[in-house]
Amino acid sequence: MKALEGVRILDMTHVQSGPTCTQLLAWFGADVIKVERPGVGDATRGQLRDIPGVDSLYFTMLNHNKRSVTLNPKTEQGKRIFTRLIEECDVMVENFAPGAIDRMGFPWEKIQQINPRMIYASVKGFGPGPYEDCKVYENVAQCTGGAASTTGFLDGPPLVTGAQIGDSGTGLHLALGIVTALYHREKSGKGQRVECAMQDGVLNLCRVKLRDQQRLAHGPLKEYSQYGQGIPFGDSTPRAGNDSGGGQPGWILKCKGWEHDPNAYVYFITQAAVWGNICDLIGKPEWKEDPGYAKPEARLDKIPQIFDAIEEWTRTLDKFDVMRACNPLNIPCGPILSMKELAEEPSLRDTGTVVEVDHPTRGKYLTVGNPVKLSDSPSEVLRSPLLGEHSDEILKDVVGLSDAEIAAAREEGAV
Ligand code: CAO
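Above: the input record for the complex with oxidized coenzyme A. Below: its predicted structure, written as tokens.
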């Protein structure tokens, strides 16, 4: 039995943040019913298409293991069907612009009235406050949540990251909120509202940068490279390039072939406990006893110079050979892996983290499977649904409509 088997989700999500959340719940076994506008569907079905007329990878990779029903809750019959779905589901998830579900005629108070056990979960760009009515996409959240101001190099502009911390990150937060509310409902018998703002989710992921903001009041951030470079600190957490962000200094270093391969680099951490091993490995055994280098505090004003010396060594080796040399010595490091290398990595295929899926109109494609592994409830990745593929079965089995009632709903444009 899957961990969330028996939990039914009314999935009113679109684009990325909400679908990430409901896809995770579906992988864990929930019955996720994705409600889409008749004839239109989730906008991402048609975005960034690589094959004409076929659901995009953007859509297919975010909507596995779900069923699709088309429904317009703004029509008369659509409202009746939607009300029945609220009665029959445990959780409703949405990430429309602020107020959209209310405008459909289903504010939280009404949803609660229809089904007091309903858990109603939403992603919005911002929480209550000056920006609560704004529409928000990924990079806006990265910029307003503190990620962009602290990402990039000191002498360059703020940078956004390729990791979708605003969309997928908030979806993950929301999924935890939903499961927590389901657990609470076991005891209270009641549903509740679950909300996660993208700004809040990003700020939560940037927690260590707010830590550093407060440390600045007590002096320079000595583990930042700029300290060793003699560059003064301003009044807010600066961009730190590839500095580690933790107590053990780290940096990205060139490896053999960096001149023509954009990913011939390695992340290298000068773990204090194995400093002696590092000195031996890079041919600087004298640094083990030198008072200017032996202790971590003594090294703080020389971090850039130390990484220059380590790079002299890493440049002589392939990035995987650097890792092979460091691992037995307990020196933490990691090669910079390209998407091509990740897609082809056999161990990720073996664990189901990278999965090949077959789709009726697109054929075979790769996706990222469930990164969370449960020992007794393994996840299988099932292809995303076509638009309205499960409309009839859901309208019959979940909503309880007859064939004639379904035909009438279609006539009205409700389905
Ligand atoms: N039947 C009929 N109408 C439907 C429908 C259905 N099944 N599903 C949605 N709609 C309607 C909504 O009612 C809404 O109409 P109104 O504005 O007239 O009330 C409209 O479709 C969708 O509205 P939207 O404003 O949410 O869509 P958008 O493309 O303009 O904005 C986005 C997209 C993502 C910016 C916005 O939804 C948003 O800010 N969401 C919250 C933050 C968020 O999740 N951002 C992440 C985006 S990427 O994951």
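Notes for the reader.
Residues 167-188 form the longest helix (22 residues).
The radius of gyration is 26 Å.
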